[in-house]
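Exercise 7.
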Amino acid sequence: MSRAADRLKMVLNHLDRSTVHVTASSTSTQVSSYYHNPTLRYTLDSDALSPEQRLSYEENGFILIKNLVSEEDIDKFRVEFERICKGEVRVPGLLVMRDVAIAKSEFVPDQKAVSKLQDFQEDPELFRYCSLPQILKYVEAFTGPNIMAMHTMLINKPPDAGKKTSRHPMHQDLHYFPFRPVDRIVCSWTAMERVDRRNGCLVVLPGTHRGALKEHDYPEWEGGVNKMYHGIRDYNPDHPRVHLEMEKGDTVLFHPLLIHGSGMNQTQGFRKAISCHYASADCYYIDVKGTTQENIENEVKEIASHKYGLDGSIRFQDTWAFRGRLVQGERTSL
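Solution. The predicted structure, written as tokens, is:
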């Protein structure tokens, strides 16, 4: 048995610790052999994650990989974002979201600020992020070899206008997804510039990925809330939280049940990040009617019907199957 496997056995002895210890593991330590232990629920055997990284994800529901995406790639994504905002390129299926309270656009006068691009799977430059080999190497440790890119976003958090609308309420991403199993889904979220508490970094509640999916809806915020920014109705506000301050190119990988959100952007600049939710192509769709996800199902179907001129017969899972793209292996189910 290799030293890496011995080390994994050793760290597994600490899985039952009651306190949460958060580490941001880098890519410096690699596993050169495989060791399987049934107590590791959330990751698969691979040579991408060190034993310490696997244990950290097991305990906390996220790991931070430093300097994973190059500055050159990020600058290209930024240029493409600007081209889209200026109307220089039209992307089929792209959803351009604008902040409800920010009247000043970053690039185009007399337009509300673009706060997010969603579903950029038809833009070759932005979608290239989802196929970067260095990201897929890590994603495979969560999904297995058949990988679908299911949900794409470029988040452009605007300076807050004083109404706190640049916040993102605490939520679980699984609320939006009608596919399972949950442990074969993972998000890759990459900072496109320095992200800290001043410009609204991610805030996570470590260990909450081990809980259940909670009820979500629009929060009752005085300044209003942006479209589809659902938040958890009930969670423990005293739960320990971690602010993920990141440098340009740093990437966090996290579980879809991890409770997270982001604070206000209190700077004068726009804070950018790019992300993709991946799922194993072996995942399957579920019917969410009668569950806490039914409200988001109805909202997504309404948007899809309006956007594409479809009648009410479109199914929630159809909206996901339409957007999903195979990025590695075989499309076996999704």
